[in-house]
Write a structure and sequence with these properties.
With 225 residues, this protein is an alpha/beta fold. It is built from 9 helices and 6 strands; from the N terminus they run βαααααβαβααβαββ. It has 2 domains: 7-17 and 102-223, Rossmann fold (3-Layer(aba) Sandwich), CATH 3.40.50; 19-96, Orthogonal Bundle (DNA polymerase, domain 1). Helix 1 (19-33) packs across helix 4 and helix 3 crosses helix 4 (85-96). The structure holds magnesium ion. Residues 11, 13-15, 180-182 line the site of magnesium ion.
Length: 225
């Protein structure tokens, strides 16, 4: 029987805001600033190192502060570039702080869901930064609550992050479904908390976890909700 959801939880990065594209633009501009030539392999190294460090953060192997401390030094060292990763990270984060490139169909999906459900954001990251990016994208109006790990005190996939969401919204877990792109944070988090999930998988990668539903574009949400 179809479940009667009343609330939707939505991840931010690479679900409604294109973190990858924002990061790429920030790196390109950062290289311009230091008068160094930018090449695509720098961005691919960033994606690789960033994913590895975020998984370590999600598994509590490193802190968020440590991630920022070592990210670009690791990337530059892997690429054999003798650059100041610390200074680059600071400039990078300043740009990322205001990057707000929407994912395709994100606004249409939010408008549609907003007409039927209570929507909240569920994001790992820094509260001020994530809120500002949602605001700059014009998406704040769609959300009743903004759950960001630095503010909640726990991060996805920790079950305590989701318990905080359920307690704050004052609902049982059957009433909510979580839309996100990350298997390690979002889908694993949903599984840990016993909350249904929609895995947004635009690159059609093969996953090792089973979400409740899977979509490849955000307009497919309408087929489920
Ligand atoms: Mg994400």
């Amino acid at each position: 029987m179809e479940k009667k959801y009343t609330h939707i939880l939505i991840d931010i990065d690479n679900t409604i805001l294109d973190f990858d594209e924002g990061a790429k633009q920030a790196i390109i501009e950062g290289f311009k600033d230091i008068n160094m030539p930018y090449t695509e392999d720098i961005f691919y190294e960033f994606l690789k190192v960033n994913k590895m460090l975020w998984e370590q953060f999600e598994n509590k192997i490193i802190t968020n502060a440590r991630l920022h401390e070592i990210r670009f030094n690791t990337i530059f060292s892997n690429l054999g570039l003798d650059l100041d990763g610390h200074a680059f990270e600071a400039a990078f984060r300043e740009r990322l702080h205001v990057s707000h490139i929407p994912v395709k169909d994100a606004e249409n999906m939010l408008k549609y869901l907003f007409s039927k459900y209570d929507l909240s954001v569920a994001s790992n990251g820094t509260f001020a930064q994530q809120i500002e990016r949602v605001r700059l994208a014009g998406f704040t109006i769609y959300f009743s609550h903004l759950f960001v790990s630095s503010d909640v005190g726990f991060q996805k996939p920790d079950v305590r992050f989701f318990n905080n969401v359920l307690n704050t919204l004052n609902i049982v877990k059957d009433k909510i479904i979580f839309i996100g792109d990350s298997l390690s944070a979002d889908i694993q988090g949903g599984i840990n908390a016993g909350i249904d999930t929609i895995w947004f998988n635009p690159k059609k990668i093969v996953g090792d976890l089973t979400p409740t539903y899977e979509i490849n574009s955000l307009d497919q949400v309408k087929n489920i909700l």
